[in-house]
């Protein structure tokens, strides 16, 4: 008799401001998973936190315009993970119907971006439930999501990071003048961003002190902790993918470069995701061999510094004088076939379906708990 297929629960959506991007990512992954090997169950988390059994139809998981973003349908049948007799099953609840069990979950593929998903929260829940999952664990997810703490960890490991100041909502409302004075020591221009955000949501470029208050207020709309950071003027934006090998060691992709065109001063949400916008991507980046090698080494070191597992995308600034600074590490990077992480790996010889399969295989090999 043939072995039963492993059941993969693809979880997407979530409560963060990156809900729509998570849906787009899920649409691509759902199409790429090998259905001859895996039984796939699409699970959406609505914006109010409700878990539902989604259709997984890729047509409903696309960005069609600035006001046409995909969203999980919270009115669908609710679903939960139930731990019973050493296994964890998916249980579906339909209104006015008794609960039904879909069976045991072998691996969860959490395609969640931002807080309440990429930050260690769902990873902790899955650890408690004893379910294997794709990607970084609790600590690595939490540290990498919080850019302020990420900088502390990377700097302690000897990695170069951009100078910044953390501003909490409490500090700002208690004494904005003191915060403004503290920030002014960084010089202008600056970038202000939510410390635990992503997809360039809530980010502002500040050219002078008169723009600072509005930028901090905007960042605080998304996160009570904001990061004010020196602008990397004149630097190239280079990214490098990291993928864990089956023996646990980090492998790195060829680096790639993002070049912003048109009226965009930086890589904002529109430049990243809206179809009518244009951003030029060089995959691989045009770099001297020694620079590319250094970037790949730094990417692997950053991956290990935060204790990452599975995958990550490490973003860098490369300055005209040759200096390299780690901008951030993303433990669940954008994952459509057009996103940088899969494109870098495709250029390195690993296509999109094979990349998805590698991540599932890694998760199946890894136990939950302390490791």
TrEMBL record:
Lineage top rank: taxon = Bacteria
| Major localisation | cytoplasm
EC numbers: 6.3.2.4
- Cofactor(s) the record lists: Mg(2+); Mn(2+)
PROSITE patterns the UniProt entry points to: ATP_GRASP, DALA_DALA_LIGASE_1, DALA_DALA_LIGASE_2
Which Gene Ontology BP terms does the record give?
cell wall organization; peptidoglycan biosynthetic process; regulation of cell shape
EC class of this enzyme? ligase
| Family, similarity comment | Belongs to the D-alanine--D-alanine ligase family.
Stored NCBIfam families: D_ala_D_alaTIGR (TIGR01205), PRK01966.1-4 (NF002528)
According to its UniProt entry, the function of this protein is described as:
Cell wall formation.
What name does this protein carry?
D-alanine--D-alanine ligase
Query: What organism is the protein native to?
Result: Nocardioides islandensis
Q: Which gene encodes it?
A: ddl
